[in-house]
Structures are given as C-alpha cells and as structure tokens.
Design goal:
With 334 residues, the chain is mainly β. The protein has a single domain, classed as Neuraminidase (6 Propeller). 7% of the residues lie in helices and 37% in strands. The strands form six sheets. It has a four-stranded antiparallel beta sheet with strand order 3-2-1-24, with no helix packed on it. The termini are far apart.
Length: 334
Amino acid sequence: MSTQLRWFSLYCSGIVLLLTACAPAHTPLVISPGITPETAPLSTETTVASTAIASSTPVATPSGRGAGQLVFSSNRSGAYADLYVMNPDSSGITLLAQGDANIFAGPWSPDGQKILYTGFGLTHSYVGVMNADGSGQTDLSRQPDSDEGFPAWSMDGQRIAFTSRRDGNNEIYVMQADGANPTRLTDAPGDDFAPAWSPDGRQIAFASDRDHESGVYSLYIMNADGSRIRRLTDNDGSDYSPTWSPDGTQIAFRSNYDGSADIYVVNVDGSGLHRLTSNQGANWAPAWSPDGQQIIFQTNRDGNWEIYLMNKDGSSPRNLTQNPADDQYPYLKP
C-alpha cells in the first residue's frame, strides 16, 4: 500500500469517514488510491484546494445564535462533504463552504472567530483555516507533497497541533496559528495522529500504534513540548479521536474495545473507563460541549451518518440533523 493511500485510510478511520464516502467512484478529485505526489504532481488548479473552494459557491452568511452553534461536514448538497453551521436546536442550517473536493470540519478557535478544517486536493490533504463566515480560506500547512490533517487549537488560540506525513510517516506537529514555525513533537516508526490539547495547554493527547502491531491504536498523553509520553489506554481494540473535557479531568474517545464502535470516557490518569453508547450502530468523533455537560458525536444508528447530542453520562441522545445525507465531524462553538 502506498504511503498516500495508507495515510488516507488512516484519516478516514480515525476521523470516521468510510473510504467510499471520502472518494466517490465517479470523480477523480480528492485523494485517489494509487496516485502519489511522485507519480501525479499537483496541478495549478488543485495545489491549494481552498482557492477552488472560495471560487466555487457563494458563501451564505450564517444565521443563528452565535455561541453554541455547531459546524459539521455533510454531502447533502452533492457528492462531496461541504461545511455547514447550525444551532444546537437543529435550526438555522446554513452552507458555509463548498468546493470541488471534500472539506472535513475541524474545531472552532477558542474565541469562535475561525474554524479549522482539513481540505483535499488532487493528491494531498492540508490543514486549512477560515473565518467563521466561511471567508478567508487559507492553506496553513503549505505542503503540496505531503498529507496533513487532524488540526486542533491550543486553548489560547496561538498554536495548532496537527498530523503530518512530511517525514514519511504520521507524526504530531505544532505550528503557530498563521502556519509559521512547524515543529515536530513525536518521532516514532508507527502512526502518531489526532492530537488534542488539554484545557490548560500543557498536554496533548493523541492516538498511536507505537506499542502494538501496525494499525492497532491506543491513546497517549505527552507534554506540549513532546516530552514525557505516557500511555493512557491499553484495550484490546483500537482507540481514536481523543477529546478533553473542559475541566481537564476526562477524555472522551471512540473505541471498538467491546467489538462495536462506541464512545467512551476515561479519567486522565487512566482510571474510570466508562462506555457511553452501546450497540446502537457505529458511534464516532465525540466532542464536548463548552460547559462539559454534553457530548456531540456522529452515529449511523439510523442507517446513515447523523449528528447526535447526549448528556455526558450517555443519557438522552438526540438526533440533531435528521437528513438522508451523511452528516459528520461536529464541533460546538465556544
């Protein structure tokens, strides 16, 4: 398997898009299996996919209540995943950004003024940022011969952690909010990906297969400078998508520890492992509400990917999107 396809498969598994959803068979755009940067250099019209996004469809001005909005990806407008915003009561659904390739939603900046995302060109993916109204889309990673993704803000909004393959395998990097001074934090032969900042900015959680056979992942925590890496989970399955509770005491994540893809929480010292969803389809991509009382996630329990909101103990799950399209990667606005 090429490194390009391996990273793409990992991205789709870790952030939760099936390969068929990521790359519709009828289109050559997005990352195509078998094509690498070496065999198919980027064309000028796809080197920075945000340019195509910005020129493709006029962006609507979001309506709604501001704080508490959520951003998500959906293919409800066509074959590709576009960015939408909506209110947590399911009202005010607004198209935010649309283009000629998939756009996977990332988190809001701590001040709610910007949104990170992962964009796709012909042969690569990149970390992008846009204003909250969809304007100002910018490729921050600027690595046309590499795959970049899984962006996460530091809580002061000054730094962005992300995953990069620029050194040949998936490693965790940190850069300034404008893309300057990228610095590698991990250096392992396996896959280190999906970083998540602690609320105090001192630690980063991430997924890695460094202590397993390739493709079997546990969660780890390290200091924000890459030092003192320690293992958080040690399950029989694979663990993905760590996200810290706002008070810094717990991490929610997705695991197939019991066979199905479910949402779990664990204390940051590794104790108190608790499953929040159970035998209700596949459940992925958890993210905490700003007050720490609820968790938003995606699930296919209704036959397609929908966005649900539940209490932090797993009770009272509620479908927010109720659409026949695939709605994924939700993040609540601070």
